[in-house]
Amino acid sequence: MNSHHERASTRVARNIVKDIEERQLPAGTKLDSEHVMIEKQGASRATVREALRFLELQGALKMKAGPGGGPVVNIPGVDHLAGALSLQLQFANATFSAVLEARRSIYPILVAEAAENATTDEICALKASLQRLYEATEDSDAAAREARNFYELVAVASKNLVLGFLVNALHHLSENSGIDYDMQHRQASARQADRILQAIEQRDAEKARALSEKMHAAAWRYWEKNAPELLNAPVSWITR
Amino acid sequence: MNSHHERASTRVARNIVKDIEERQLPAGTKLDSEHVMIEKQGASRATVREALRFLELQGALKMKAGPGGGPVVNIPGVDHLAGALSLQLQFANATFSAVLEARRSIYPILVAEAAENATTDEICALKASLQRLYEATEDSDAAAREARNFYELVAVASKNLVLGFLVNALHHLSENSGIDYDMQHRQASARQADRILQAIEQRDAEKARALSEKMHAAAWRYWEKNAPELLNAPVSWITR
DNA sequence: TATGCGCAAGTAGTATACTATTTAGCGCGT
DNA sequence: ACGCGCTAAATAGTATACTACTTGCGCATA
Fold first, then answer.
1. Mind telling me how many Å the CA of B207 is from chain A's nearest CA?
2. Distance from CA of B163 to the nearest CA of A (A)
3. Chain B 147-176, residues with CB within 8 Å of chain A CB atoms
4. Which H helix or E strand runs over A82?
5. Could you report the per-residue pLDDT of B220-231, keeping only the tens digit for each?
6. What is the pLDDT of residues A175-194, one digit of tens each?
7. Which residues of B touch A161 (CB under 8 A)?
8. For chain A, which terminus, N or C, has the lower number of CB atoms within 10 Å?
9. Which pLDDT band, with edges at 50, 70 and 90, does B5 fall under?
């Protein structure tokens, strides 16, 4: 028996999420507007809005104004998970080096699992992404974007949904550190990604893992050399 | 010019977090009360409360009523991270099998790193926890609690802060599935934990990793045999 | 007929005021 | 000295009004 009353806004938020789950509402579905929810949930407007705001910040829904507007179901991206994670890390006084360590530990696993589970289609998509990665080495922003895309494709190919989420969230976090890789590093990264992809194609999980470990070791050295102060910089909450 | 206006409540939440970060406020510190924040932030009460409610749900602060009450700085536990993660997973239509897969992938790494980095003090703490684990095999709840504690100690010993966070959040999630291990499994788990701890003590990372993989394979078989429907059950948002 | 401009309607967001609930602190009485 | 209960402070929740923004629709004009 819950002796301490659950918060009204929490209850409303849970009801909304439960409703979305039960009715299997796809992204883009219009939910009830505020005053309808006020009636259905039997809560005041402020309470309902607190719930909506929380779910919006978590990426579970978007809110749009105007006629035909209102709360709309949304599938949260990794950036929202990264936001929640970064908040926790800030309160744990974590530094970016901790984020990099976690990435260095997890990513090789993800790559190895991708080598075991990737379909030929997924390998093709990875090859296309790699091609774009080579072409984008000139532009720092474009390279970072394509690297992110490559990561996501690897995550999908690994068939390990949750692990992919976490790795991508960590990637998002380290991107947010303000690090900027130079052209030389970007080119080297692309070549390493190339070799990893070859290992994946050969279904050689061990080789892919080893290459990935080397790649992250190189990235670590890059940080140490070019931005040692960033390694000790505390993680702080990112809000998109 | 920021064309897309940042939400007032988001801005306030960010300011509060920023303040906590800059002043390095420890857990338990009383923050300004609502009406003080209303003045300082120049926002309405509803706005301030939306911000406070969000931070409360994220575990960044607690709110207490009554005199001497108000918002109090709090260090969020893994349960909050688990909550955020579960929300994301629900929207990704993830099942508990995905959570278990991720755990199976990450935990061996964590254990291996613990073998490399644990101090003798931490190994002592682990031994004590293991002892309690043996003693708690009679009681399902107590065993689950002590297993959690053991996990947390391993996470600390690994010195990999972020990885520990993630593993513990995943553990929290799988606990929340409603799984119940029988006595035989609890005893076997304790024995396996014992062997892993021995490997950690011997600084044998590879052995610890292999044992951990075996342990998770056994846990997987247990789920398949005793609760196959849970493996395919969708993860849904947990709100403590 | 097409196009652009503006008005109106509907929604999110903000502000203010009031009631209910919780609880620490204090005082009074036995 | 003990405890019962009052009170005040602070949040929780509700109600209502007002503001700002978005967008569809229609009218006027080229």
1. 17
2. 5
3. 160-163, 165-166, 170
4. helix A78-91
5. 999 999 999 999
6. 999 999 999 999 999 999 99
7. 89, 92, 94, 98, 101-102
8. N
9. low
The strand pairing partners of B72, in sequence order, are: B30, B62
pLDDT for A4 equals 57
CA–CA distance from B220 to each of B38, B102, B165, B168, B228 (Å)? 52, 12, 22, 18, 10
DSSP letter, residue B58: T
Query: What would the pLDDT profile of B20-41 be if each residue is shown by its tens digit?
Result: 999 999 998 999 888 888 888 8
Cα separation, A9 vs B53, whole angstroms? 8
- Per the rule left: phi > 0, alpha: psi between -120 and 50, beta: everything else, A236 is beta
Residue nearest to nucleotide D24 (CA to C1'): A67
Residues A65 and A86 in one domain: no
Tally of structural domains, chain B: 2
Query: Using the beta-carbon criterion (under 8 Å), do A59 and B105 form an inter-chain contact?
Result: no
Residue of A nearest to B103 (CA): A163
The answer to whether the CB atoms of A88 and B76 lie below 8 A apart is yes
CATH number, residue B27: 1.10.10.10
Q: Is the CB of A5 under 7 A from strand C?
A: yes
The verdict on A53 touching B (C-beta cutoff 8 Å) is yes
* Residues in chain A closer than 8 A to B60 (CB atoms): 87, 91
B228 with B100: CB under 8 angstroms?
no
From B45, B73, B101, the end of a domain falls on B73
Pairing state between β A70-73 and B61-64: unpaired
- Low-confidence residues in chain A, pLDDT < 70: 1-4
3-state secondary structure of B54: helix
Half-sphere exposure of A12 (CA within 13 A, CB side): 26
Nearest CA in chain A to B101: A160
Of A73, A94, A124, the last residue of a domain is: A73
Q: Is residue A239 part of a domain?
A: no
pLDDT tens digits, one per residue of B155-176: 999 999 999 999 999 999 999 9
- Above 80 in pLDDT, residue B129? yes
Contacts of B120 (CB under 8 A, 6+ apart): none
* Domain match, B140 and B91 both: yes
SS3 B44: coil
Closest-approach residue (CA) in chain A for B25: A91
Question: Rounded distance, CA A212 to CA A192, Å?
Answer: 8
- Which of A47, A78, A80, A87 is best to mutate for the B interface (most B CBs within 10 A)? A87
Residues A148, A207 within the same domain: yes
